[in-house]
Structures are given as C-alpha cells and as structure tokens.
Fold this protein.
Amino acid sequence: MEEENKHAMMECIMAEPELIRTLIAHRKQLSREFVALFLKHPIKKIYFSGQASGTYIGMMLKPMIEELLAIEVTVTNPAAFLEHEQFNVNGVYRPDEIAMLCPAHSGSTKGPVKMAEIALQLGIPVICTTYDIHSELAKRSTVVIDKMSYEEASYIETKGHIASLTIFFLCILETAYAYGKLSQGEYEQWISDFEKLPAACEDCIIQTKKWYEANKHMLIHSKVARYIGFGSGYALALEGSLKIAEATALAPVVYEMEEFMHQGTTQIETDSLIFLIAPKAKESQRLSQLLKWCRQYSNNCVLIAHNDHPDLDAVSLHADFLDKEYIYVLEYLIPFQMIAHLMAMDMGLSTIHARNDGASSQLETHVN
C-alpha cells in the first residue's frame, strides 16, 4: 500500500526558502526578547545545549557569536553535561553573565530540559527556540522563541532545523547591532545578504535534483560515506551526514578537514564516497589541495561548491551559492537534506516512519 504523505520531508525542504523570507521579515519581533536580555545582562559566557542537530547548531553559531559579540561559547552535549560537567566550573562568571541557549524542536528532549532546570536554579537565563511554546523546555526558559514552524510528519527534521538556525543567526545580528558592534552600513549589508539567501536556496534545490538524477547510482550502491568540512562546515558535515544516515542507513564517517589528513587517508579506495564541502573561505586553498589528493585514489569525490569553483568535475554538486560567511551553512545544508529524501524514495524506505520506531520511548530520551 502506498504510504500516505510519503513526500512530507521533501515538502518541508521545498518550503525552507519561503520560511527564511518570513523569518527575516519578522526578525525584530523574533529577536526582541533575546536582544533585551543581552542588553540587560552583561553576558560573557554562553552554553549551547542540544542533542544531535541541536549540538550542530551550536557549533555552527559559535564562530559568529565569538566574532560579532565577543562572547565565549561552549557547545555541550546535555546528557553528558548532566553526568560529567557543570556551569561556570572555574567560578569566573556571575550567573547574570551566563546564558544557556537551546535550539530545540519539540522541547521535550530530556537532556536540555534537565540542564535548563539546573541553569534556572543557579539564576542563569535560558533561551530556547521550539515549535511548542508550552513544552517542558519552554516552561523552564526565560525567553521562548516560536520557530514559526511546526511538528513535521517526517521523523527526519529539516525545516525546523533551518528555522532554529535562521532565528539564532538573526538574533545574533540584531544583538551585535544593538551592542554597537555593527555600524548601520554593516548591519544593512548583513540583512541584504540574508535577503538573497532564499533565492540561493531555491537554486540549490533545483541543482541538487539534477545532480542526484545523474549520480544516484554512485550513492545507492555505497555502504559508507565520508564527509569533510572546515570551520562551521564541519558541523554542517555532521548534520548533513545525520540526515542521510537517518533516511538511508548509509554509514557516516565525518572529519574536520585537517583531522582527515591525519587519520582518514589510509582507508580511501577507488569507490570511496567522499563529500567535500567547499564554501569560499580562507581555507579554500587547503581543501582544494586535499581534493586533488583524494581524486588520485577515489572516483567518487563529491565537491560541493559554487558554480565558479575552479576544481569542479563531472561528479561535483554545484549551485549559485551565496557563500556569505557564517550563514552559508543554511544553503549548504539543502543538498544533504535533498539527497537523504531522494535516496530513501529510490531505496523504497520511509521518511515518515523510522524502521526502529519506539526507540525514544524505550530508551527514555524524552520527558513526555
């Protein structure tokens, strides 16, 4: 029997550009309480708390926060934090100098909820994004930001992830402007670049579909995929690999670019599938050097880059990426989301019902 709404994941992906437009248009409203809290409290330290995709959001946002706001950031795994870590371990900061940020979806994951409880007991403000503003996490948060998204029919979150990431990016920009860290001209340039992002995402959707049709045989017959990124692109590689693994069970091996050079080179064979994420950045030349090395040993090196990248070949996935510092992760996520769904459909797999459904209940990963 045909599965009802089996393309729900793709529908969410297709809706992401318009969602980004909506979030940009409502940025002042969405960021108002976030900015007010940062103006009221002299925040010097941020803890990001989220499981899986939530962790990767923190990793993607950390460089921008430290650069634009000059605030120290720690990205935590909340489950591990509860057993092995604590806030303000050296006692340097007052509670009002610390903030906990939670990029959440349902707001029911046990780790962030319990970590938020500890934060509030210590007087540390908690800010979360969630589609459920009445969730257990929201009840424990000082500021709750509605993601303007919803619970997705697919068990693989896509649109909601983009919503959290976009909202926090916009909150950072608005706070940097309020702090006086960005001039009027710099702020307007950031917003102008952000407003170009949805069109770049739409082109990426089109180009990924074309690329997939030409290269799906290579993907479907692979047992393992390697993902390589640098800077925020490493967190992007982790998130992208997660989407494909969730949808297809294609085993992921993820590397930060320099780490791959130290530990991943000996395992490459002719049919090794390797995704190399190559936004325009100061590390671009180094990644090109690695790409050329990989191509000596594997025929399946997928460079993901702008249309004008000098190293494109027949299996490269390229589009008219905006390639704006920090926020490029939003557009480069789309190919991985698209590939995940398209592969699952061709493999006869569901993106609505997980094959091992019920794991979260049995393993007690959520509070309700």
User: Anything to note?
Assistant: The CA atoms of residues 45 and 124 lie 11 Å apart.
